[in-house]
Design goal:
Elements lengths: L1 H31 L1 H15 L3 E10 L8 E10 L3 H4 L4 E10 L1 H5 L5 E15 L14 H6 L10 E13 L4 E16 L4 E16 L11 E12 L4 E11 L2 E10 L9 E11 L1 H6 L3 H7 L3 E2 L3 E10 L6 E14 L4 E12 L14 E11 L2 E11 L5 E11 L3 H5 L4 E17 L9 E15 L4 E13 L2 E11 L2 E9 L2 H7 L5 E8 L2 E2 L23 H15 L1 E13 L2 E12 L3 E11 L2 E13 L2 E14 H7 L13 E15 L5 E20 L2 H4 L13 E4 L2 E8 L2 E10 L4 E9 L5 E7 L24 E8 L5 E5 L4 H5 L1
Parallel strand pairs: 4-5, 24-26, 25-26
Antiparallel strand pairs: 1-2, 2-3, 3-4, 5-6, 6-7, 7-8, 8-9, 9-10, 10-11, 11-13, 12-14, 13-14, 14-15, 15-16, 16-17, 17-18, 18-19, 19-20, 20-21, 21-22, 22-23, 23-24, 26-27, 27-28, 28-29, 29-30, 30-31, 31-32, 32-33, 32-34, 34-35, 35-36, 36-37, 37-38, 38-39
């Protein structure tokens, strides 16, 4: 054993001695031939490049790459011929370790087998005129020919440490700036056409800009990984398949290809795909250019995504084509228009919608499919959501949802409408700006369907029950179709539209015009006396959620408060207190504080009525009405009864009969219950009463004391009675009126007053002394007739305030007037 150890130590001593001997020989050779070696290395580099090469010093290193021998080049500099003009050094490094074959170096043959560069910079520069120092990569013609010989590719390993690579193209506004912290590349030649490069890499990307104004990819991000590259010499193509790398310490998988030169008509370009999982949306978009990052910032997602992307572009400058796909699960998504919770969907991005147009934001889009999520707790689904033109984003989407109506109260927080029951389903599509919209039209199409809804319209204290129907949206217009409901025990069916409402609601809500139609088989207007009241200034006291829909509700409140309504009403039957009518049609404009009766037609009391006019809120419990009423052949008794004798007690429905045709122009004031303020009546009544009769009319019966006591004053038939009445300040001015009746003929004029100041004169011609038989038919002779010798009776208030009649022997009434 001791003998074996002895020989082993002896052998090792011999080996060490040989190595030391060889090192001494090489050392003295290098020392003796230093200038020659520098010249040889310089010549070797110069043979490959058309540039100016300088090396400050050279030395031999055994231990850096032991046991291999390296020549260490200190302060190597390579510059192109135009350096003095642009001042960008093509290559410089503090140290370059050139691994060489010693015996080949001694024989002055190509001896480069490995390369290590420390603290260096390679700068590829192109100026605005197109000049570039890249020509230094072009091998000299004799070197190129020599390179075709087998065995010329001796470089087996490249190592880089703290080496910066810069590619700057001022003409194409391109800047790549990479700092290689550490790189180890082993090069193997499979055959004459393919090189395999096994890389262990760690670098920092300062800039990867293909278009500087649009920003850099991977800006200020680390890039590290171990992977294999293949270089196809014939096609001048670099490829890598499914390699795993870390970008900013997050794992990615890459596949790519770089076509470095034009071969067989294929222009130089690059393409690669990238995949990753569980990545933050904010982090992922920061890997893209600042322009794309800014564009994608119109939306955000909280939970991590699975992302794939494809990037294809020209190597010699120009914006690449980018496609990206991602999958989100249970993520919260925000945008300027709306926010969603617990969303799951697939999304994609492309920067070239129209092939051939510039790959910029206006030609870009985001597309989201199979979207499910929640909006303020409401379930939302969408088949497709598209955001076009990321410079001025427009949104195209479809939204579906179904929910109880009551859940909208917290979201709307509306002062005007309170929802208390029913279901709603939403199926709408939207096309419009993805921002607050004040200058562009929004385009919303679709419907909200309401079933068995109940609600209260607070400004008018009107409850709505059993609401069923659809609200349609068509290109900024809002339409209501077949909306049936019960309002204050009235069954009605409504339809309506508001043109351009979705645009005006944001800018000029007072200019929104609602065209509304209502049909009811039987409508009781007495239930709607609250409409006469001033709109309540209702203000919600409940704190809302501060969402976009609440803001929209505020705008809708403003529309209902300040907009105008064109109302078309149709009712088979209409009731108001004692008034009833059939076949009613009405066209009404409702403004903020007034109603305009454009045209009202109805059948009443066996005849027909036309009404126009206005109703205006003047103050609390005081409403001024101006009306023009045309009555045609109506039953006067029923009309007087229906209108409560028009606020007077001179002639009542119980005492008058006949068919009335009249035109009334009047103004009057109403309280909130619809009752007339008597002193407010002011107007003119032109009337014609045919087949008329006075039944037990007390003022006329009192004449029996003075005239024809044996005649029947309880039922007086008279010829056509026509006249003009002027009503003002609770007084009715009766112009000279002819009354030809079955009892007597007379002329009446004067003032009938509800203020106890009545003053009426009755002229009874003596021709009445002639007895009139049962077959007597009264006929008018005209008010311009004097009447001949007559008896005058004057009616004025007595001490009790009631009208008292007495003889006016000297016609004092005429003299007083």
């Amino acid at each position: 054993m001791n003998k074996y150890l002895k020989y082993t130590l002896k052998g090792l001593g011999i080996v060490v001695g040989v190595i030391l001997l060889l090192y001494t020989i090489v050392y003295f050779y290098v020392s003796a031939n230093k200038k020659s070696i520098i010249k040889q290395v310089t010549t070797e580099i110069s043979k490959r490049m058309n540039g100016n090469v300088s090396i400050r010093d050279v030395e031999l290193s055994f231990f850096t790459n032991f046991p291999k021998i390296s020549v260490v080049l200190h302060n190597i500099v390579i510059r192109d011929t135009m350096y003095e003009k642009h001042r960008h050094t093509f290559f410089e490094a503090d140290k370059v370790f050139v691994r060489v074959g010693f015996w080949k170096m001694v024989k002055k043959q190509s001896s480069l087998t490995g390369l290590r560069i420390e603290d260096g910079t390679m700068y590829l520069f192109t100026d605005t005129s197109g000049f570039t120092n890249k020509y230094l990569f072009d091998m000299k013609s004799d070197t190129a020919k020599a390179g075709t010989k087998k065995g010329n590719n001796e470089l087996k390993n490249i190592e880089l440490k703290n080496v910066r690579f810069i590619i700057e193209d001022l003409q194409k506004e391109k800047l790549h700036n990479l700092l290689v912290n550490k790189l180890d590349a082993d090069i193997k030649e499979d055959n004459d056409s393919t090189l395999n490069v096994d890389i262990d890499n760690n670098m920092f990307v300062n800039s990867l800009a293909f278009n500087l104004p649009r920003g850099s990819y991977l800006k200020e991000k680390s890039f590290a990984g171990k992977f294999l590259l293949r270089y196809d010499k014939g096609n001048k193509q670099i490829q890598f398949d499914s390699i795993d790398v870390n970008i900013a310490k997050h794992p990615f998988n890459l596949t790519g290809r770089f076509d470095l030169a034009e071969v067989a008509g294929r222009k130089p370009q690059f393409s690669f795909t990238v995949h990753t999982k569980n990545v933050e949306y904010e982090f992922a978009k920061k890997l893209l250019t600042q322009k794309i990052d800014s564009a994608l910032s119109i939306m955000s997602a909280t939970n991590k995504l699975d992302i794939s992307a494809s990037i294809i572009g020209p190597i010699r400058g120009g914006e690449p084509l980018i496609r990206a796909w991602w999958t989100a699960r249970h993520s919260d998504v925000k945008s300027p228009l709306v926010e969603f919770d617990d969303c799951s969907f697939t999304g994609s991005y492309i920067n070239e919608i129209v092939p051939g147009l510039p790959r910029k934001d206006p030609n870009s889009k985001i597309e989201i499919e199979t979207f499910t999520g929640k909006w303020q707790g409401l379930p939302i689904t969408s088949e497709k959501i598209i955001i076009n033109d990321l410079n001025k984003p427009t949104l195209i989407c479809d939204i579906k949802s179904s929910f109880p109506l009551t859940t909208l109260n917290d979201f709307l927080n509306s002062a005007a409408i309170t929802l208390s029951g029913g279901q709603a389903s939403v199926d709408i599509s939207y096309k419009g700006p993805l921002a607050k919209n004040r200058t562009y039209n929004s385009f919303v199409n679709g419907a909200i369907t309401i079933k068995n809804g109940t609600a209260d319209y607070n400004p008018r204290s009107i409850p709505l029950k059993n609401v069923n129907g659809k609200i349609l949206f068509q290109n900024s217009d809002v339409l209501v179709k077949n909306l049936s409901c019960q309002v204050l025990n009235n069954n009605i069916i409504m339809e309506g539209s508001a043109k351009n409402a979705l645009s005006l609601v944001n800018t000029e809500p007072n200019k929104v015009i609602l065209d509304w139609s209502i049909y009811s088989p039987s409508l009781n207007l007495g239930s709607f006396t609250s409409l006469l009241q001033q709109r309540k200034k209702v203000v919600t006291t409940k704190k809302g959620l501060g969402n976009k829909l609440e803001s929209t509700a505020r705008k809708l409140d403003a529309v209902l408060e300040s907009g105008s309504i064109n109302l078309s009403l149709k009712a088979d039957k209409l009731l108001y207190k004692k008034f009833d009518a059939t076949d009613v049609t009405a066209y009404v404009t409702i403004l903020q504080n007034s109603w305009q009766l454009q045209k009202v037609n109805l059948n009443h009391a066996g005849g027909h009525m036309n009404i126009t006019g206005s109703l205006e809120d003047k103050s609390a419990n005081y409403h001024l009405a101006k009306v023009n009423v045309e009555l045609e052949n109506v039953d006067v008794s029923k009309t007087f009864a229906a209108f409560s004798n028009f606020g007077q007690d001179g002639i009542t429905s119980e005492s008058i009969r006949g068919k009335l045709t009249s035109e009334i122009n009047a103004s009057l004031a109403l309280d909130d219950s619809g009752k007339v303020y008597p002193s407010s009546m002011d107007g003119v009544v032109n009337f014609s009463l045919k087949d008329g009769a006075l039944i037990d009319y007390e003022p006329v019966k009192k004449l029996q004391i003075f005239l024809f006591k044996k005649r029947d004053f309880a039922n007086i038939q008279f010829a056509e009675l026509k006249n003009t009445l002027e009503i003002k300040n609770q007084e009715v001015k009766i112009s000279r009126m002819e009354i030809q009746s079955s009892v007597l003929s007379m002329f009446v004029e004067g003032i009938f007053s509800m203020k106890k100041t009545t003053d009426i004169t009755i002229q009874v011609p003596l021709s009445n002394l002639k007895k009139r038989g049962a077959s007597y038919t009264p006929e008018n002779v005209g008010t311009d007739r004097k009447g001949g010798p007559s008896i005058y009776i004057r009616g004025t208030p007595g001490e009790d305030g009631n009208v008292k009649f007495k003889y006016d022997l000297f016609h004092k009434f005429r003299k007083d007037k």
